[in-house]
Design goal:
There is one protein chain. α4 packs across α5 and α12 crosses α15. By secondary structure, the protein is of the alpha/beta class. It is globular, with a radius of gyration of 23 Å. It has a six-stranded mixed sheet, sandwiched between helices.
Length: 323
Amino acid sequence: MTKDLKIITALGNKPDLVLEIIDFFNGGDRYCYNRNAEKIRKKFSNQRLTEIYLICTESVSQPLADLRRTVKEEYPEIAEHIHAVPLKGNDISSATDDDDMRQTVYKQVEKLASDNLIIASGGRKQVTQRLIEAGLLYGCLGYFTLTSPVYEARRADSHSFNIFFTTSRQFSEERRSRIIRDEMGDNFRSLYLLPLQSIKRLQNEKIGIEPSRFNADLQWLQKLPKSDLHCHLGGAYDEKLLKKMAALLLDDLQVDQKRRQEIIRVIEKRVKTSINSITAKDIKGRGQLHPLHNLNAVCQNDLEAGHICKAVLINGLSTQQIK
């Protein structure tokens, strides 16, 4: 007899991860996985995913529509069982936003709590953290993670996916052990498993202040996992520090002044204005987005990689423009 499964996760800016999760549980022979993933898949051989709950900000309305359309075509049996759980606003950028999100997540997991509920990592990491907490509090079957070492992986790349599943009991019993940290699938999510005292230390301890501790601080930094670090710097620094970071990056990558000017000229040609004349009104105006909103596309073909172009741009803007 087939047992029904339900999954709750967060929807990000693309529907791909949710589709890949559906493929894993309901895709049958259409998708093949590595040996470890197939072992996990075998455990669910007599179970089918029948309901999906997605924690959504207002900014993911288009990915949600794309997901519903694809599922209707490929998995019509669950097309009517994709439930959006809306959050207020487009972002989680304050303590109030986080508190509202936590209450929404907790209430939803409390309603769904059962031995056939799986909590899956996806979308915003803040939401994943709250889902894990709620699962521990109210109960679930376990925790599921799907990642890929292939950048911009496609669903057809399923053989390269790293699949991890941890039962709720195992998660609770081994929460602080190295085993469970490995099974959660990436360095960032493993931070949730540290003791509260360690988490507070990471949040509050300042480094680089005492000259006598320079070498010790540097060694500590070098030991930290860096796989997700780039995802969590945006908006964290003021305009002066951003300019300094951009200049240091360009120096470190040996992008000379001549090349920087060449990049500036190409960007100005693409956005049809000089860098010095860009204003907040240009970028925040209504209607069509300013080309700088999609600098990666501007940088394609005859420019450097996107991160270099962004560093050149930030280095070329005034602090007032950045602000």
